Amino acid sequence: MSDLGYIEGRNVSFEDRYAEGKYERLPGLTAELVRLGVDVIVVAEGPALAAARNATSTIPIVMASVASLAAAGPIASIARPGGSVTGLTLNAPELTAKRVELLKEAAPRLSRLAAIPASKGGMVPIWLKENEAAARALGFKLLVVELPEDPSTWTKAFQGIREKADGLTIMEGPRFSVEREQITRLAAQHKLPSVYSNRRYVESGGLMSYGVNVADVQRRAAVYVDKILKGAKPGDLPIEQPTKFQLVINLKTAKALGLTIPPSLLGRADEVIQ
Q1: Structural domain of residue 142, as residue ranges?
Q2: How many structural domains comprise the chain?
Q3: Model pTM greater than 0.85?
Q4: Residue 106 burial (CB < 10 Å; 0-12/13-18/19+)?
């Protein structure tokens, strides 16, 4: 927003609300924003989008990295959605299979893969189908594991996973984002090579990630906010889908896992964390 000429306290003010992965807090938080009379609501997760849509039908809503286009609700078309919702999605389910392929390149001995979704809804059923197809093609045995709601029990849960799997693919969601350091620590503790959709997990010690360049998507969201503040109607602004992707590899983690990342894979990485 600053690149577009907005200076907080001079010509714009921001009201930040964060549910910390607790979806039940979202209706109250969005209702509060509506009472404040904000000009635009920016959301970064499907549940937050649903809460905002339920809270208002008049305040423009900009998606700044929502996983599924379906979360936007009924739209006339991607090019001209109509209504009060527009912005950018992370909708690229084909990346799910690609992550499994990349993990196999990094850990060629891997044969039993645990897929761990953060939730049951949204894009998860599609992601699981993509994982199943990739596992079949690569000769993996796929195990779908749901972590308990209480993160304090995850140490025991990972012990059970390690008995049945020798690698992980994590399907991100808000509750996992909050606990990503624990997830990557437990994966490392149990010597489980892991692949993620978001680079933040690799920065926290995960082995590798391949996914949408979220920072680029969120920067693009500022352009939507700017246009709306200057008078554009959200329903007239096309919904964008991702075009930039990034592969990030943590070599320190690879070494701790006893893995030698092939030069061909390192050469394709957008960033290598030493």
Answers
A1: 94-212+246-273
A2: 2
A3: no
A4: buried
